[in-house]
Design goal:
The protein has 251 residues and is α+β, with helices and mostly antiparallel strands. Helix content is 46%, strand content 13%. It has a 3-stranded antiparallel beta sheet, covered by helices on one side. A two-stranded antiparallel sheet has the order 4-5. β7 and β8 form a beta hairpin.
Amino acid sequence: MAKRGAGPGANAAEAAGLRWLATGDVPVPEVYGHDETWLLMRYVPSAGPTPEAARAFGHGLAALHLRGAPAFGSPPPDGPADAWIGLTGMANVEEPDWPTFYAAHRIEPYLREATDSGLLDAAGSRVIGQVCERIEELAGPAEPPARLHGDAWSGNLHWASDGLWLIDPAAHGGHRETDLAMMRLFGAPLLDVILDAYADAADDAGAPLADGWRERTGLHQLFPLLVHTVLFGGGYASQAVAAARSALALA
């Protein structure tokens, strides 16, 4: 399969991300090569969702996350620090803790862009800014950096005859709740089966999800909603503000 890159460095970032995620826990396409224009990888025919594949994926994703990353914001080995999420750039900058990384390198850059371009009004910008100011108290218990797919919406979960595959990553070291929240953002087939299997596997590994992880979904969805606001405008700005309000309600 040949895929055209979204911009400078996009193919290098995706190739490095796919290789970093290729631990055997969750299937990912094999990368054959890339240049600035094209990424060449294995073609995986699609098939319908099954509960068995959903459970296996949930178990595997938990194991993948627990393989960890060097730091919050670390890019995949041999990949560029400046990566992409969808059609927009995404900087991976290492920070000592997740709240600092998420506020400074995920929320704030896209909040500025959405505000400066007039896609987000001043009132909405203030609400989201409050999340950054209070991120320490909203983030939940501290966790070690997880090995994230980084853009795990349903379109990047590829159902095949031999399981559920991860494609098109924006991989980096981050918080494992981020991938779970991204799957919940637009919905996915058999999502409850996936999440239950994930939680069971995390429990079995001695790394249970922290209490309140479902309630923190809005906090973790704020970044992709801001990205969508910048890219597509429309109603995504109001959804981003709603996600920010839900996060602030946790304090």
